Every structure is written in structure tokens, then in C-alpha cells.
Amino acid sequence: QKEVEQDPGPLSVPEGAIVSLNCTYSNSAFQYFMWYRQYSRKGPELLMYTYSSGNKEDGRFTAQVDKSSKYISLFIRDSQPSDSATYLCAMTRYGGATNKLIFGTGTLLAVQP
Amino acid sequence: NAGVMQNPRHLVRRRGQEARLRCSPMKGHSHVYWYRQLPEEGLKFMVYLQKENIIDESGMPKERFSAEFPKEGPSILRIQQVVRGDSAAYFCASSPGAGDNYNEQFFGPGTRLTVL
């Protein structure tokens, strides 16, 4: 079983739709949760960075963490064609000797104009 | 405020040659990470360094791969005697290492290594 599971998609939505992206994980030691956006042949771009459970909002993006269910989500409101990319969830433990990120495999999103 | 810089962006090597990938972290960041992204796979951690120290190399292959982050200059990921299976995108990330967002990692554009 992978430590982080993410549906690879592809996910296709019309412009203006609300997009929901999700990851599940198995390691209860994870405390920091991140969402990255990666355009084709580019480096990952950090979208959201959250610690422990709860919600965080930034513009059209909302990140949710439910540690009791080991489930994290990213919502994109009023989706735009420019949001078409691969979305990667990542997480890491608190403290310890390493800050290495464990990534999901990514969900490919296509927003149709 | 320059982001993480990597060079070269593209690197072609023949089997048996050496590949050197360079990474300059964001200004003010003292922690560097290397990740590898194979075709159709996710990003996999390779190594975590601070200045002059390797903190975690649990993701590095045991042979042919090495990394350093000297007191002066960029971090270097070195692959000796490359094989076709080393063809991948190699990403460097950096983080502040201190403060509330001490492990917030920002990625560079990557180096795409092709082994012929």
C-alpha cells in the first residue's frame, strides 16, 4: 500500500465549475500538507501549505485536512482553462531528522472553455 | 526575489558518462532537497542537505549517485556512469529551515536528463 493515494484522473470539467481534488494517506505521523500545481514539463508550484487539521483559503483555492479520516482535499472555485495542469498532494512529518515530502502520483485536470 | 535555479535545464549523456546537476536555492534558504520524477510516476525524494551536511539520503540509489551542498556555491547532484534508466526529470527544492514555514518547499524548473 502506498503511503499517499491520489486518483490520477484525468478529470475534465467545464469552465466555471468547482473542482474537488483529494488524497488519502496511511501514515498518522504526517502533519504538514501541501498542494502543488505542475504544468507540463515545468517544476511543481506550491499552491497551499497547511499544518494539521482544518481549512485554509487563498483566493479561488481552499485546502481541507481531516486527520481523523486521513483525507485531504483541494477545492478550486470558478475554474479556468489556465487551471489545466497536474495537481500533486504532498505531506511530511513534524519534527524528526528529515523534512522529505511524500507525494501522491498527481491528478490531471482539464478545464474546458 | 529569484526562485530556485537549476542548470542545465536539459542534459544529454551517453551511457557510461557522468551527469552533474546544479541547484541554487532561493535567497535566504539553507535547506535543499532533490527529487526525481520518472515518466508516468510521481515525485520521489532522493536526498536532503543543509550547508556542508547530508541530513537524509534514504532515497538515493546506493551506487553511482552522490550529492553535496558546499559552504559556497550551488548544490550538486552527481550521477556517475549513467544508464538509460537514469533518464528522468530531476527537481531541486529549497526551504527556509527556520520559522513557522520552515519546511515549506519551493521547487526549481528541473533538469531533464536523457541518457542515450
How does this structure look, described?
The complex is a heterodimer of chains A (113) and B (116). Chain A has 113 residues and is mostly beta strands. Chain A has strands spanning 4-6, 11-14, 19-25, 30-38, 45-51, 54-58, 61-66, 71-76, 85-93, 102-103, 107-112. Chain A contains no helices and 11 strands. The termini of chain A are far apart. The mean pLDDT of chain A is 93. In chain B, 0% of the residues lie in helices and 48% in strands. Chain B is built from no helices and 11 strands. Chain B has strands spanning 5-7, 10-13, 19-24, 31-37, 43-50, 53-56, 65-68, 75-79, 88-95, 106-107, 111-115. In chain B, the strands form 2 sheets. In chain B, strands 2, 4, 5, 6, 9, 10 and 11 form a 7-stranded mixed beta sheet that branches. Chain B has a 4-stranded antiparallel beta sheet with strand order 1-3-8-7, with no helix packed on it. The radius of gyration of chain B is 14 Å and the shape is globular. Chain A binds chain B through residues 32, 34, 36, 41-46, 49, 88, 90, 92, 97-106, and chain B through 4, 6, 31, 33, 35, 41-45, 48, 55-56, 58-59, 89, 91, 93, 95, 101-110, 112.
User: How much is the average pLDDT of chain B?
Assistant: 93
Radius of gyration of chain B: 14 Å
* CA-based shape of chain A: globular
Enumerate how many helices of chain B there are, as a single number: 0
Oligomerization state of this entry? heterodimer
Total strand segments of chain A = 11
Strand portion of chain B: over 45%
Order of helices and strands of chain A: EEEEEEEEEEE
**What amount of the residues of chain A lies in strands?**
over 45%
Rg over CA atoms of chain A: 14 Å
The computed structural class of chain A is mainly beta
Output the number of helix runs of chain A. Answer: 0
Mean pLDDT of chain A: 93
Order of helices and strands of chain B: EEEEEEEEEEE
Q: Distance between the terminal alpha carbons of chain A, to the nearest Å?
A: 37 Å
Distance between the termini of chain B: 37 Å
* Quantity of strands of chain B, as a count: 11
**Could you estimate the helical fraction of the residues of chain A in percent?**
under 10%
The assigned structural class of chain B equals: mainly beta
Poorly predicted regions of chain A are none
